[in-house]
Amino acid sequence: MKISELKKGQKVTVRCKYKDFLVDKNAVVAGVRSDVVLLELIRHEGQVVDFSSPSVQIITIYEDGQDMPKAWANCRIQRRTVDGRQYHALAAPKGSVRVNRRKVSRIVLNMPGKLKLSNSEQKINITIHDLCVNGIGIQSPVKVEEQDLKHLYIQFMDEDKDDEEEIRLEARVVWKKELPNGGFFYGCRLSNAEENLGYYIAGKMREMR
Fold first, then answer.
1. Global pTM value
2. What is the full DSSP assignment across 42-101?
């Protein structure tokens, strides 16, 4: 995918790295001119961000909820005036690559869990494939409809506890795919979780060492 294939109104994440400093800024596509994407001005604490330093590394990430996120590396962003309006002009030298945004260690579980959607009291039996502090991969026998992608409620049991403590979390779908043997796989980012999730993951990580 070329960066010029982005459409007006779509949202991207601009990740900037300078030495050990890393920050993500959200941006909205205002239009495309040739191979340059015009972004609504990106601000930080009310000030327009200056991306002109050659020492700043810029990666642009796009998530459409249909597949794994796509990322463009070595981007350049400059201020540009078009038809009397100011924009950040984004350019990338190469096409995108598919990326998994969960860069932290994960644990593979393949254990049963429950999924509840925001508009239903019914709980769906799912398989929790893997888990980390900011994401979860689940397999569901039924398709999650578009209106529910941002509101998944997942629960499973900590089988190592004598009383099998319940762990609950909320997530939103980042990417999805239909499985050839039936069912659907969803890669999700956690939006909220109870404190015991951290203890659960820490315990599992200790077991893996």
1. 0.56
2. PEETTEEP----TT-EEEEEE--SSSS-EEE-S-EEEEEEETTEEEEEEE-SS--EE---
Q: What is the pLDDT of residues 114-147, one digit of tens each?
A: 999 877 788 999 999 998 877 899 999 999 988 8
Tokens encoding 144: 């999650």
**What b/e sequence results for 71-92 when a residue is b if at least 16 CB atoms lie within 10 Å of its CB, and e otherwise?**
bbeebebeeeeeeeeebbbbbb
* CA nearest neighbour of 131 among 169, 177, 175, 182: 169
The tens digit of pLDDT for each residue in 179-202 reads 988 899 999 988 888 878 877 887
Closest CA to 88 of 157, 30, 152, 6: 30
| CA–CA dist 149, 122 (Å, integer) | 16
